[in-house]
Amino acid sequence: MSTWHVDDAPPPTAVSGKPLSKKGERTRRRLLDAAEEIFAELGYHDASIVKITESAQVAQGTFYIYFESKQQVFDELVDDLNRRVRFAMSEGSQRGTDRAEAERLGFAAFFRFTAEHPGLYRIIRQAEFASPGALQRHYQTIADGYIGGLRQAMADGEIAEADPEVLAFALMGIGELIGMRWVLWQGGPGEVPEHVFEEMYAFIRRGLGSP
Amino acid sequence: MSTWHVDDAPPPTAVSGKPLSKKGERTRRRLLDAAEEIFAELGYHDASIVKITESAQVAQGTFYIYFESKQQVFDELVDDLNRRVRFAMSEGSQRGTDRAEAERLGFAAFFRFTAEHPGLYRIIRQAEFASPGALQRHYQTIADGYIGGLRQAMADGEIAEADPEVLAFALMGIGELIGMRWVLWQGGPGEVPEHVFEEMYAFIRRGLGSP
Amino acid sequence: MSTWHVDDAPPPTAVSGKPLSKKGERTRRRLLDAAEEIFAELGYHDASIVKITESAQVAQGTFYIYFESKQQVFDELVDDLNRRVRFAMSEGSQRGTDRAEAERLGFAAFFRFTAEHPGLYRIIRQAEFASPGALQRHYQTIADGYIGGLRQAMADGEIAEADPEVLAFALMGIGELIGMRWVLWQGGPGEVPEHVFEEMYAFIRRGLGSP
Amino acid sequence: MSTWHVDDAPPPTAVSGKPLSKKGERTRRRLLDAAEEIFAELGYHDASIVKITESAQVAQGTFYIYFESKQQVFDELVDDLNRRVRFAMSEGSQRGTDRAEAERLGFAAFFRFTAEHPGLYRIIRQAEFASPGALQRHYQTIADGYIGGLRQAMADGEIAEADPEVLAFALMGIGELIGMRWVLWQGGPGEVPEHVFEEMYAFIRRGLGSP
DNA sequence: AATGAATGAGAGTTCATTCAT
DNA sequence: TATGAATGAACTCTCATTCAT
Description:
Four copies of one chain form a homotetramer. The first copy, chain A, is mainly α. Chain A folds into two domains: about 10-70, Orthogonal Bundle (Arc Repressor Mutant, subunit A); about 70-210, Tetracycline Repressor, domain 2 (Orthogonal Bundle), CATH 1.10.357.10. Helix content of chain A is about 70%, strand content about 0%. Chain A has helices at about 20-45, 50-55, 60-65, 70-95, 100-115, 120-130, 135-155, 165-180, 195-210. Chain A is elongated and about 60 Å long.
């Protein structure tokens, strides 16, 4: 479909602003991973610093060497996840030899990502209350990626003319609920079943007016 | 599209199980309305019993005469809301003279409902963590409504053959994200703009393979 | 010396703003007394809510029904104490039959008060950091009481002409350090020894230029 | 008035007891200066080791090479300050050609010192809780300086007979509150206004019974 | 001599829930 | 039926101090 531009994450530092030693980097990483897991499992509010630090096997105070607050780790995780989703889709769609295949692979990458990281998906969905504005930012940046590709495809006559933003949000919505129904509700990691993907994809192709 | 079957809500009782007096019914209603407002505004966790009872102008203890716990009011609200959404869509689609119009009106009703009760929409989206299982139940009951109608339409040759569950979830996803983008993010109640609705609807019609 | 105007304290309420029941009033009183004792003994920072509530024999949470924060109880105590000091001095000086005697009795009242409530004295002295501005307010209101009396006395030719504010602060300083040396450092409640009071008083009388 | 005896400070060592290298001495000095500044600005409790070491531009651990604890630096600072106040007053009063002038200059020196180091003054006033006993020691050593001079003056018939300790504490109290009112409350360094000094000084002279 | 990552106890505060009245 | 005072566990966050490097 399109090549998303995915900028690099800023290098991690301590709260004090100092750069991190190898050891510090490892500890920060452990905390971030633990936070991801706990947030995904319990949700923002039921996740507690105690649980996160216990899971990371460090003392409570250690958390605050690397993160300003619970809120801030959450925001960082959402940003991170946003980058990873877009990167996955970008990577996926670049493998296609023509636009149709690229589009298909981009979608498949999105589902594979959701399937591999169901927790991240759960994190995003709670962002609305946990971090005002984060959710909107997340969807909008992904939409922007789609919009570029859709505009191209229209210009090239590959799909019918339409408001690309409406299409982009429609596509994301489809992906979101199909992912929720056939990945998350299955419990544990898994894949969207082949036939579900094909049916959904056919629906989208027809909807977009592809020949 | 289809006529959703919407069963009645069970009659309200006190926690003790006793039926309610007129006065008790009124108090319970006030609490439920207050809870809806506070949950929608602040989210499950930041909504507190104090805030709810203050808004309802009763004492804290009164809350526990009518509801078992914070959790339970929330669940009741989600159920309630689910019934109201389905009722609105059912009502809407019954007004149509043919299936195509019914379908269109059902969709419009959904958006009108979202636009008129943006807070409810926010309640649903947080249900995932606040009340495990509630979200799944919510989507599934709505999907079931769609599925019946879609099956009919396929049998009648009005739309292309496809797995109706996949289609149902795709349709809900589209509605959800379009509603979020063009109603919720606009702040305050409002309507999905005419042209957005038309573009989206055209996409869906094509996708479904309607002639 | 002069009659201080001492306004009444506002009636105590819960944090919510609601008036207190008899029981609530009692609990609030117990907490306030406990806070006074703990602050006096340990200082603002080493006093903790746990210690205060333990001393008052209530649960930690109960504290926050009656007080907004640790800071706020402290401020209330300082205000309270300020009122009580001024009231004691006002009462004392009103007993005198002529100005000289009134002045003497006012001073004596101040020392008696300090002697009876050594803890309060310790509370005031730490207010500088615990509650910015509180200390200044405290001294200034007491100074204002002195200033009125001194002005009268100058007009009546009973003491030499001088800047009454300078005199007021000088008098307070004398009272403060004499009180500290001969009451607080003695440990436990007690009285400024007779001869110390007389020597100090003679010094002040000469300083003021009383005949 | 009198010549205070001001003994030298003990030479600084590391916590381990070892004497310091030139570099070590410099680091220790930097920490001590930073501590003085931070304690003065924030008070004992809000001053943290992190802030002190940041201000001194050394690592946190470095602090504990030179000082046993937060408490101990504070004590050292109070001692230090005590020595400096007494030295300033001693220096000042030695410049006078007769006792009256010496006394006057000693006082003036005290105010100048306060005016130039308002922060130190703030440090002393919080010593009561931060370091039990330190405050008493501070006042007593200054009082001792006064007492010697006052005794002399009485013997020489220059001032009226009285308990010199009472007079000493009265004088310190006057200095303290005048300094607080006209230096500290003005914010930033400054001087006691000329006329305030004169009025206060006249009060003291009369009080002491100087001819 | 100096570093700075790590600790862990303890701080103030919130809030769902209970219960005597 | 309604009250609201009381509870206490759990929360996020701070900071003096230690110690391996």
